[in-house]
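note to self — DONT lose this again. spent like an hour looking for the file last time. sequence + predicted structure for the chain T wanted, 243 res
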Amino acid sequence: MTYCVALRLDRGLIFMSDTRTNAGVDNISKFRKMFTWEKPGERVITILTAGNLATTQAVISLLDERLKAPEDRDPSIMAATTMFQVANLVGETLKEVIRTQGSDGPESESPFGATMIVGGQIAGIGPRLFLVYPEGNFIEASDETPFFQVGETKYGRPIILRAYRPEMTFEEAVKLLYVSFDSTLKANLSVGMPLDLQTIERDTCKVAAQRRVEENDPYFSTISSRWGDALKLAFNSLPDYEF
């Protein structure tokens, strides 16, 4: 399992993903789930992946491969004129990989499905964010649905629903995502550190900041500890039930 989140803010886009993959309690590995293609000033594209590892790696490899000889292939994500076209290319590639893996080779107990968040900006058009399903179709973030989650979403969703504001700063958004991931990490062992964090500033068409959050990260530890204390304080301040 995994947990990935992307928020659409007035200031731009912010992404966060864990790195844990597992095929049982005794087979745990770490793999990057955040991938970025960038031509500063022209375009920046980030994809977060969740689902079957072989499927997601095949999709990313195909997208990379099609950058090397675009004249002999379908339009690549770095040649697409809009982020809508980028999301469509990712969806078609995902559908192609799932169809190929599902029809050939030995049977597997694991499904071949995967879900992806695709976000970024192409010069002249505002930042856009999409959620791509295993079938290849997708939806776009809107004012009513300004963020997407994939993977183990239920534990970290409540805090985002309660605290998200489109006008919040990147600094506030990082704090919000840290709390969301801390709640998920504590509730589900299939999600694990380190975490990958990235921001894309509106109209720059480049990555503004990117970092890996390790297990001993002091700021994450502070947020985790203080959030736990704040929850206990809030709970104790509630009136007791009277029989």
